[in-house]
Amino acid sequence: MTNPTKLVVDCSTGITETIELTDAEVAQMQADAETYAAQKAAEETAAAAVEAKKVSGKAKLKALGLTDDEIGALIK
Amino acid sequence: MANTFVKISTVTVGSGGAASIAFTSIPQTYTDLKLVTSLRGAAAAVRGTVRVTFNGISTNYSGRTVRGYDNTTTDSTTSSTSYFDIWRIPAATNTASVFSNDEIYLPNYASSNYKSFAADNTSETNLSSGNTNYLSMSSGLWSNTAAITSITFVIADATNFVEYSTATLYGIKSS
Fold first, then answer.
1. What is the model's pTM?
2. How far apart are CA A46 and CA B47, in angstroms?
3. Which residues of B touch A11 (CB under 8 A)?
4. Across-strand partners of B117?
5. Which of the 8 DSSP states describes residue A25?
6. Which one of B26, B59, B106, B166 has the lowest number of neighbouring Cβ atoms within 10 Å?
7. Distance from the A19 Cα atom to the nearest Cα atom in chain B, whole angstroms
8. ipTM score of complex
9. Over the stretch A35-66, which tens digit does the pLDDT of each residue have?
10. Are B70 and B132 contacting, i.e. CB atoms less than 8 angstroms apart?
11. Is the dihedral of CA B111, B114, B118, B119 positive or negative?
12. Which structural domain, as residue segments, surrounds residue B124?
């Protein structure tokens, strides 16, 4: 076998088959994986931006004289 | 006493791994379905994301997931996606031999209404810091009136489920 396989359980018979993916199925999976990778990268970038804003915001609050405990209480 | 909780089928991934696992020709004679899995992915990553689809149809999945991991909590929603990202499972760079514990509960799967489902997912990494335990809970909706006759799940990065991953489908009758 050259392509990955899928396990297909036929619940009406209880028989499980190991079936090689077709080239089209492999191509679709790879396309889906590329889309997923792009989405994941975008989510990570957005999360990093939010984290950076949190750090910046905390620094500004601290500069105003708030303690770490007070800042923690505010943002919970 | 009525036999209300019945194992329909179970499968264990063999030595070559498997890119997807599908339960097909699901009998329509139960009230609800419950899928219980123990999974690990082959990707060179800490975790892999598992996607589920019903009846081989890639439209109209939506829902909300709350996750806790690495001292972080997240809350995300999805709408009108072509799959539901339902679980995150340990992968190759996670603690060796750690598998996930996962469930999906599908009430009224044979009805002609839209299909709601609940899912939960945990993995114990046996580490005190770093990539610590992962857990998630999801509420999902498949906006389709067809009875569910098949359930398929894959890893989003197109890698394999590793050997000894297991999945068992149960049927539940109301009486």
1. 0.89
2. 20
3. 8-9, 23-27, 169
4. B140
5. H
6. B59
7. 9
8. 0.91
9. 989 988 998 898 889 889 989 999 999 999 99
10. yes
11. positive
12. 5-71+79-130+138-172
